[in-house]
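Quiz preparation item.
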């Protein structure tokens, strides 16, 4: 029970039914190596948590963004509940250190594996729903996704610039743009990347960001501005 108490303290949660928490934290590799363990693994709770996350996320987005179309809401929800995002949520609350893993899985880096972190986060949501109901689960989930939405929206908006750059570059230059990392600076927790958007062999735009993706998207916006100016200039007849 000491391990469960430590998990509750670390996660900021208190379960009425401790077995639900223990099941949520139990990976199948632990069951495989401990045949006499009295509980099942977390896969059934993962199934439930996946459905609860979909609903809670959809409801939050529906009320938070009344101007968004159904397609935009669907895209944003998908970004919030994908494996990488849920694994990041799990990492933020230190979930990996509390998972019951088999020895082999732990030695192979299971505590930081995206799929395991994602599945365990879903299982934890499912367990919380069964233990304390929908409102408590909403409170737990929403305080995390509320912070993630602005980051995801920024990325989604920037993707439009990259798509448009590709479309215009192929149309007017018959070239598909490429992206090249120019430099990276700073410590691991605060890296800063500089990326170039290339049209052929020429640099059309530079972008800086705390990830290569964000930097590439910024470079695409700069390149798009230049390409649009060039295309506009080519369309103006020479009066000389």
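Solution:
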């Amino acid at each position: 029970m000491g391990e469960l108490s430590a998990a509750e303290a670390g996660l900021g949660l208190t379960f009425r039914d401790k077995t639900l928490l223990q099941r949520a934290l139990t990976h199948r590799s632990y069951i495989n190596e401990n045949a006499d363990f009295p509980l099942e693994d977390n896969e059934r709770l993962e199934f439930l948590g996946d459905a609860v996350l979909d609903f809670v996320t959809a409801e939050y987005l529906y009320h938070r963004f009344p101007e968004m179309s159904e397609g935009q809401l669907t895209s944003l929800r998908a970004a919030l509940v994908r494996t990488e995002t849920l694994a990041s949520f799990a990492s933020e609350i230190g979930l990996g250190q509390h998972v019951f893993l088999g020895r082999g899985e732990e030695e192979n880096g299971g505590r930081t594996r995206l799929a395991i972190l994602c599945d365990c986060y879903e299982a934890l949501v499912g367990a919380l729903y069964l233990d304390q109901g929908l409102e408590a689960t909403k409170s737990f989930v929403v305080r995390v996704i509320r912070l993630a939405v602005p980051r995801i929206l920024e990325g989604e908006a920037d993707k439009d610039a990259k798509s448009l750059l590709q479309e215009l570059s192929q149309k007017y230059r018959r070239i598909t743009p490429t992206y090249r990392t120019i430099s990276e600076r700073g410590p691991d927790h605060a890296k800063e990347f500089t990326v170039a958007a290339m049209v052929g062999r020429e640099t059309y735009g530079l972008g800086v960001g705390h990830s290569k993706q964000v930097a590439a998207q910024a470079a695409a916006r700069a390149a798009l501005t230049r390409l649009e100016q060039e295309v506009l200039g080519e369309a103006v007849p020479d009066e000389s």
